[in-house]
Amino acid sequence: QVQLVESGGGSVQSGGSLRLSCAASGFTFSNSYMSWVRQAPGKGLEWLSGIGSPGFTYYGDSVKGRFTISRDNAKNVLYLQMNNLKTEDTAMYYCGKGCSGSVCAVRGQGTQVTVSS
């Protein structure tokens, strides 16, 4: 079955960096468009970034210039490098497959990111 497992979250201070990973299994990862979405406390899901199978990347305005999405098709892993983190980046982060905006057909269990000032 399709499975996505996120890792790499944690607590950092404002201005810090984290790299999230998403291990994928159960489908042909290399052919799949993958996304990262997040949900802050008390708010709805927000689409952050997507990457196509040839590697074309897309970013939401809130993370453009700070976050970088990438993939390792040999390892079936999706990454999100997050730099210059802000307190408003505090959220549960999910990787997703088959996303239309922030709604994904398949999503992992999420990894928590907490940014303190």
Folded structure, characterized:
This protein has 117 residues and is mostly beta strands. The protein has strands spanning 3-7, 10-13, 18-25, 34-39, 45-51, 57-59, 67-72, 77-82, 91-100, 103-107, 111-116. Helices cover 0% and strands 56% of the residues. The protein starts with a strand and ends with a strand. It contains no helices and eleven strands.
Provide key terms for this protein.
117 residues; mainly beta; 4-stranded antiparallel β-sheet
Short recap of the structure:
The chain is an all-beta fold and 117 residues long. It is built from no helices and eleven strands. Strands 2, 4, 5, 6, 9, 10 and 11 form a seven-stranded mixed β-sheet that branches.
> Low-confidence segments, ≥5 residues, pLDDT <50?
none
Question: Number of helical runs?
Answer: 0
Shape: globular
Number of strands: 11
The helix/strand order is EEEEEEEEEEE
Rounded radius of gyration (Å): 13 Å
- Report the end-to-end length measured between terminal Cα atoms: 40 Å
Residue share in helix: under 10%
Mean pLDDT, all residues: 96
Largest sheet: 7 strands, mixed
Helical/strand content category:
mainly beta
Estimated share of beta-strand residues: over 45%
Give the topology, please:
Blueprint: E1 3-7, E2 10-13, E3 18-25, E4 34-39, E5 45-51, E6 57-59, E7 67-72, E8 77-82, E9 91-100, E10 103-107, E11 111-116
